[in-house]
Amino acid sequence: MPQSQSSTREIPETGLIPKHIAIIMDGNGRWARNRLMPRMAGHQQGVETVRGVIKSCIERNISYLTLFAFSSENWRRPADEISFLMQLFMGALEQEITKLHVNGIRFKVIGDLSRFEPKIIEFIHNGEQLTTQNTRLTFTVAANYGGRWDIMQAMRKMMAQSTELPLNFEEENLAQYLSMNYAPEPDLFIRTGGECRVSNFLLWQLAYTELYFTDTLWPDFSEHELDLAIQSYQQRERRFGRTSEQLQMAVSVKR
Ligand code: IPE
Ligand code: IPE
Ligand code: MG
In principle, which of 2, 42, 66, 123 could form an S-S bond with 140, CB 3.0–4.6 Å? Predict the structure, then answer.
């Protein structure tokens, strides 16, 4: 499997358009509460936003979109909300997979699937298989995902693969077992809903990602909001630990 560039090893290729955008879709509950509606109405509306963001990413030539749909800590929510979210996820899978495929989108799910119902797992596997050759956009849903879980499961897999305990292993040895080993590290991270935290999302991969926080609640997140985030990204100087002068030198050498 080709290894993606590691931001802690080298300066990855970057451009004006982020290759990979990762989003924490937060604020569905508050959106509904503001309208005196049940939280579930917010989740339902949130699915509409997902559709719009996928379309916008394709139009902007973004290659990878990763959305945090359900965290390993979200099981602590009330049972009726969890089961509603599962049904919503399942319904969306059932309805959308063919559309994703027709539009050239590769579908992936990361997270600990073992807690999901067998039917959902089957839908996920079928969807992944159907779309595996598509190259227009890789759309990843993080479901029952946690950054710590990911690093732990990678560690377990790595140790199970080697005959002796690898004490001198390198970053790359572990990275190949992370669940997003098929994607470059995110260039841009967006969190809607006003909280300025990572909430156990892609802990490893966010090492040098540009972070963008907006108060907009996920159901209200529009194409324009996405452009604001991209514009903010375009104004950042990504130094990856180097000085500004070093980066400018590297650019002038390339020219
Ligand atoms: C994000 O919206 C969706 C999930 C976590 C599943 P929330 O449900 O967290 O909405 P708020 O933060 O309570 O408004
Ligand atoms: C983060 O949102 C997880 C998802 C969007 C799936 P939460 O609403 O669960 O995060 P906290 O609890 O506010 O940190
Ligand atoms: Mg929330």
Answer: 66
